[in-house]
Amino acid sequence: MNVSIPPPATRTDPLLPEWRPMDAGDLKAVVALAGQLHPGCPERTDVLDERRRLCPEGCLILPDAQGKAGGYMLSHPWRMATPPALDTYLHHLPARPDCWYLHDIAILPALRGRGATHAALQIMTRLACARALRWLALVATEGAGPVWAHLGFTPTPGIPPAITATYGADACPMRRGLTST
């Protein structure tokens, strides 16, 4: 399924939450949110920090009303046929990525329903298109496949089962095509 590239979100758009860059000081909150919202997919702090260091523009924080981390997004360019296994180091980004990969997104229930996921997808779409990438990709976990399907993602065939298994029994690699129209 191809989707149009949405226009950039701006500060004047009251419907879209404002994501901000993640910094090293946010890692403690990110790990706490991950443990609370994704208990079946634990990852080490230094693995998450490596993603932040390798692709700072794709690693963001969604502040709550008090400015604290109420959500986060970890994303980066990657190769769709070989998503990184859970809790593994990347070491470097691929020289020739073919997708923008959403490693993880977590949003506290109190902040859901306000467009944060749509805003995150817009950000990732802009990042992907700036690199001439034609796909967004992810591994849906913990029953989230229907949510991602509703957002235009479809199952990605041919992913090695050994990688998918690191994400849990119900893990489903998914992708969404992008167009420049």
Low-confidence runs (pLDDT<50, min 5 residues)?
Answer: 1-15
How far apart are the first and last residues' alpha carbons, in Å? 14 Å
Strand content: 15-25%
Query: Total strand count, please?
Result: 8
CATH class: Alpha Beta
Q: What do we call the CATH homologous superfamily?
A: Gcn5-related N-acetyltransferase (GNAT)
Total of helices: 5
Q: How would you characterize the largest beta sheet?
A: 8 strands, mixed
CATH topology: Aminopeptidase
On the 0-100 scale, what is the average pLDDT?
A: 88
Look at the helices and sheets and give the structural class. alpha+beta
Work out the helicity level: 25-40%
Secondary-structure element string? EEHHEEEHEHEHE
In the residues, how many domains can be counted? 1
**CATH architectural grouping:** 3-Layer(aba) Sandwich
Globally, the shape reads: globular
Domain N-acetyltransferase: 17-179
Protein name: GNAT family N-acetyltransferase
Organism: Komagataeibacter medellinensis
InterPro entries: Acyl_CoA_acyltransferase, GNAT_dom
Fold and architecture overview:
This is GNAT family N-acetyltransferase. Residues 17-179 form the N-acetyltransferase domain. It comes from Komagataeibacter medellinensis. InterPro entries: Acyl_CoA_acyltransferase, GNAT_dom. The chain has 181 residues and is an alpha+beta fold. The chain has one domain: Aminopeptidase (3-Layer(aba) Sandwich), CATH 3.40.630.30. It has 5 helices and 8 strands. Strands 1, 2, 3, 4, 5, 6, 7 and 8 form an 8-stranded mixed beta sheet that branches. The two termini are 14 Å apart. The model is unreliable at 1-15 (pLDDT under 50).
